[in-house]
Amino acid sequence: MSDTLLAGLASRLGPRGLLTGSDAASAGWSSLGRPIAIARPSSVEEVVAVIRMCAEAGVPVVPWGGKTGLVGGANADGAVALTLERMNRILQVAPDDGVMIVEAGCVVQTACEAAEAQGMFLPLDLGSRGSATIGGVISTNAGGNRVLRFGMMRDMVLGLEAVLADGSVVSSLTPLIKNNTGYDLKQLFIGSEGTLGVVTKAVLRLRPHLPSHNVALVAIDAFADVIRLMRRLESRLGGQLSAFEVMWKDYYRLVTTAPARGRPIVPLGHEYYVVIEMLGGDPAGDPGRFQAVLAETLEGGLIQDAVVAQSRAEGAAIWALRDDGEQVQRDGPIAAFDVSLRLSRVEPFSQALRERLHARWPQSRVILFGHIGDGNIHIVVGVDPERADMRRQLDEAVFGLLAEHEGSVSAEHGIGVDKRPYLALSRSPVELDLMRRLKQSLDPGGVLNPGKVIAEA
Ligand SMILES: Cc1cc2nc3c(=O)[nH]c(=O)nc-3n(C[C@H](O)[C@H](O)[C@H](O)COP(=O)(O)OP(=O)(O)OC[C@H]3O[C@@H](n4cnc5c(N)ncnc54)[C@H](O)[C@@H]3O)c2cc1C
């Protein structure tokens, strides 16, 4: 059966359109499994053909973007992987309308640069910006560093085009900000990790280019003051606070000591270090205002120390500390979690987590950092490579405690397969049932990314 399918796909997609055998072996951040082939369509018509032919042959289709997902959502074991890499064009940037239209395989950074070239700003910023694609960030409802001000992908997508499991094309490429004409169908495809449709194009909302970048690193000794500082900045900076990233002291020590390239820009010895970014439109006035507000908080004792970047290079050096997440792996294998809580629960949760993990594994290392403005923390725990069962026990300990604190088991990375066993900790039985009914009604044959997000009925 699969030989007939592969011959049909090869003939429909042409010489560059299908990779099989050793050519289909691919590398990525996530676990990709062993696809029986990689389809590389170059148009929406070819996407339709791949889906129809695979559906007929009873072979699943797994959409691939930049393969930077971290929860196994792009695992294509025994399936045809459908990569959008050839559908990567910027179709239009329209500054007057404040939108751009792109194909789904366009890399995030390329889209951001195309917007900037027209004096506009696509405010999505995440560590994987050089590889993740627009289709991938839509399908995972990605967030990143500036959610605090500009929201997640749900807030940046005005319209999209997607191919359903039966091969029909839903073309909702509207550039309208206000469009209350019935169900908001695009939302079905945002964050559904390729299980309801393959996103092929999107209309993205742009903002005007913001020329003034102001960055600071501050040190704080009490978590309550971290929250107070954020609220103060939101108010005093008049809505221009764009990022508020917290590094707990263990993370800061790792990224500022050898073999890391970074050095302590603010001295070690404090409990929390916060990267603050204000983006504005007044390069002459903004820096003075930014510094004055921070000086006020220093004098008032809300922060203990601060360094304000005096140039783009100094700002980049501060951001490089926050972005040097690879350091968390330097002392051995780790398990990483991406969770969210309401802000008032973050500190009680993290203290209880340390206690619980240390009681069970006295040597365990627990490192925290995250997009705290959104209540999103990344938890990294050192694991004992000798104990194969530790990962599952850790998952249960972390997610169980999270449920007690009414948090979400996935803040950004999605569910994929890795978090599927824990979805019920964050969603009610009625919500899960509705998700299953949606999947069943749009994809009764289980063609699109089956087994991801929710288990098959
Ligand atoms: C260093 C690093 C930093 C990261 N930082 C962040 C961060 O700050 N915030 C954040 O949210 N995530 C972050 N991530 C996770 C990851 O980059 C995001 O989940 C991203 O959105 C995935 O995009 P991608 O193109 O790589 O998609 P892939 O990994 O290829 O796919 C992800 C999922 O989307 C589906 N999919 C992909 N393309 C399509 C399409 N066109 N139509 C339908 N389904 C599709 C796939 O089947 C899969 O289920 C980070 C990852 C890394 C490696």
Count every beta strand, where a strand is a DSSP E run of 2 or more residues: 18
How many helices?
A: 14
Report the end-to-end length measured between terminal Cα atoms: 25 Å
Bound molecules: flavin-adenine dinucleotide
Proportion of beta-strand residues: 15-25%
Q: Into which percent range does the helicity of residues fall?
A: 25-40%
- What Rg is obtained from the alpha carbons, in whole angstroms? 23 Å
Your description of this structure?
By secondary structure, the chain is an alpha+beta fold. Helices cover 33% and strands 21% of the residues. The protein is built from 14 helices and 18 strands. It has helices spanning 2-13, 44-57, 108-117, 134-139, 147-150, 186-189, 223-236, 249-256, 286-299, 312-323, 343-360, 390-404, 423-426, 429-442; strands at residues 18-19, 37-39, 61-64, 80-83, 90-94, 99-103, 120-121, 157-163, 169-172, 198-205, 207-208, 212-220, 241-248, 272-280, 305-308, 334-340, 366-371, 376-382. The strands form four sheets. A seven-stranded antiparallel beta sheet has the order 15-12-14-13-17-18-16, sandwiched between helices. It has a five-stranded antiparallel beta sheet with strand order 5-6-10-8-9. It is globular. The chain binds flavin-adenine dinucleotide (FAD). Flavin-adenine dinucleotide binds next to strand 3, helix 4 and strand 10.
